[in-house]
Structures are given as structure tokens and as C-alpha cells.
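Regression test case RT-17, inverse folding.

Input:
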């Protein structure tokens, strides 16, 4: 038979006191921090699940920032294309005016000057920027998509922005896709800037046939710009829909993280009171049992 000595009994009782103290300290720490999992050993499975959810949340937050950039590009494209359509419409009205009745040199010059002014305004719209980048220059560097003469400075690159883990959206069109392709050998059938230069000259020359043909070309150019506007506008709606769905998923992730990590304050308070009572009881019992006496020293 094994004999339980006073020393071993005391050691066991003190170990129980220390265990109760540790449980009380942990309960107090959980209440103070609001977290039930404070280190990996507190709940390895919960920690792994929480880390995975947090990683997903960080990726989603980055994608949300990307979506914000995509919205800026798409909104800028919408505004620019609308401005282009309005200016081309103004040019069309001037052509009709110039071609509707005989006019003198002064009138033709005034109309031609207005067309040239609208052409320069179109170049400004073509150089619309977002975050310092021209939206119609493709992926080329530089501050301008078109120079002051209307020459394209960009490339044919495609600007793609990931807005969810599964969806990457094209958020811009290149200058030639919006304004048409340059044609140095036949400017009248070139891009919009060349076309307006030719139409301005036709107005000065009173060339009725060129002005009539120009009306049809302007309609074709307007249709091209409108198609780009509708396409990019629909993508703006798509970005908003995708991020709305992602926001709902983010809410679920945050709820899952909270369930894994956060305490229930009422439950934690009850647990703390219970552990406090256990600790106080352990102290009292141990203090009563472990009382050194003269007999203890004589044994």
C-alpha cells in the first residue's frame, strides 16, 4: 500500500489552488479583452478557422478597394463619352446650319471656327484622367492619350481590374475604339479629330457634298461612342451588384469570426463568478487543512 505523506497532500492541494487561480485569471482576461481565444492553445481548431476567415476578409477588402478604382474609371468613362456625344451632336447641328442655305465667307468662317473649337474640346475629353492616368490610352504610360494635334499617344492595351475572386472587368476602352482609327492618307474617313478638321475645311470651301457625307460619318461616330458608353455603363452596374453580394458575404465572415473569437459577456461573467467562488473555496479549505503545528515539526 502506498502512503500519502503530508508533503504530497499539501502539494496536491496547492496544485489545485494554482489550477483554480489560473482558471480565474483566464476568465478575467477573457472579460477584459472580450476574446475567448487569445492564443493558439486556447482552441487550435477555432484559431485555424478564424485565420482562414480573416484571410478571406482581407482579400475581399482588397477587392473592394479595386472595385472603388473600377468605379472611378467607369464613371469617368461615362462622363467623357457623354461629353463626346454632346459635342459631336453640336458639330452635326453646325453642319446642318452650314449646308441648309447659302452663306457668306464670314458665316462659314464662324461655323468653321466653332467646329475647330469643339474639336479641341473633344481632345480635352479624350485626355480625361483617373488617378493621373488617361482613361483612353490603354496601358501606355504618360499624361496624355492624344496630343494637341489629335495624334494618338497610347497603345492597344486593355485595363483589367479584379473586382471579385472570379471576375476581372475591363474598365476602359482605347482611344481608337472610341474616336475611330487614324487614316493619314484619307483624313475625311479617319478618326473623329481628322474628320472634324476635314469638315471644318469643307465648311470654309462651301463643299455641300462633303458636308452631307459628313453628317452620315458623324452619325456613325456617335453610334460607336454610344456603344462604348452603354458597355461601360453596364459594367458599372455589374461592379455595384458584385460588390453588394461580396458585402453580404463579408458580413457573414465577420459574424463567423466574432462567433469564434468573441465572448458572450453574460456567460463569461457567470463563468468568472463561478471560478472566483471555486478559487476562494479552494483557498479557504487549503488554509484550514495546511496548518503547521508543533506536532508537525516533531514528526
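Golden output:
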Amino acid at each position: 500500500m502506498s502512503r500519502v505523506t503530508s508533503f504530497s497532500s499539501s502539494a496536491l492541494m496547492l496544485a489545485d489552488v494554482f489550477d483554480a487561480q489560473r482558471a480565474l485569471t483566464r476568465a478575467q482576461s477573457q472579460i477584459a479583452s472580450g476574446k475567448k481565444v487569445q492564443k493558439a492553445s486556447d482552441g487550435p481548431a477555432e484559431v485555424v478557422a478564424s485565420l482562414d476567415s480573416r484571410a478571406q476578409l482581407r482579400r475581399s477588402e482588397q477587392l473592394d478597394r479595386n472595385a472603388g478604382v473600377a468605379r472611378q474609371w467607369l464613371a469617368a468613362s461615362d462622363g467623357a463619352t457623354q461629353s463626346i456625344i454632346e459635342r459631336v451632336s453640336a458639330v452635326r447641328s453646325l453642319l446642318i446650319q452650314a449646308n441648309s442655305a447659302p452663306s457668306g465667307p464670314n458665316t462659314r468662317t464662324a461655323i468653321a471656327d466653332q467646329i475647330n473649337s469643339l474639336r479641341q474640346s473633344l481632345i480635352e475629353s479624350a485626355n480625361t484622367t483617373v488617378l493621373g492616368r488617361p482613361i483612353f490610352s490603354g496601358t501606355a504610360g504618360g499624361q496624355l492619350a492624344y496630343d494637341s494635334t489629335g495624334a494618338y499617344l497610347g497603345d492597344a492595351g486593355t485595363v483589367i481590374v479584379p473586382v471579385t475572386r472570379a471576375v476581372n472587368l475591363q474598365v476602359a476602352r482605347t482611344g481608337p475604339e472610341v474616336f475611330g482609327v487614324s487614316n493619314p492618307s484619307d483624313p475625311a474617313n479617319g478618326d473623329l479629330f481628322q474628320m472634324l478638321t476635314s469638315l471644318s475645311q469643307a465648311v470654309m470651301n462651301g463643299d455641300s457634298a462633303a458636308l452631307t457625307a459628313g453628317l452620315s460619318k458623324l452619325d456613325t461616330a456617335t453610334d460607336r461612342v454610344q456603344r462604348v458608353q452603354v458597355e461601360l455603363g453596364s459594367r458599372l452596374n455589374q461592379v455595384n451588384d458584385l460588390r453588394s453580394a461580396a458585402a453580404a458575404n463579408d458580413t457573414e465572415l465577420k459574424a463567423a469570426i466574432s462567433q469564434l473569437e468573441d465572448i458572450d459577456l453574460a456567460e463569461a461573467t457567470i463563468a468568472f463568478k463561478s471560478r472566483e467562488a471555486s478559487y476562494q473555496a479552494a483557498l479557504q479549505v487549503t488554509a484550514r487543512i495546511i496548518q503547521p503545528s508543533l506536532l508537525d515539526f516533531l514528526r
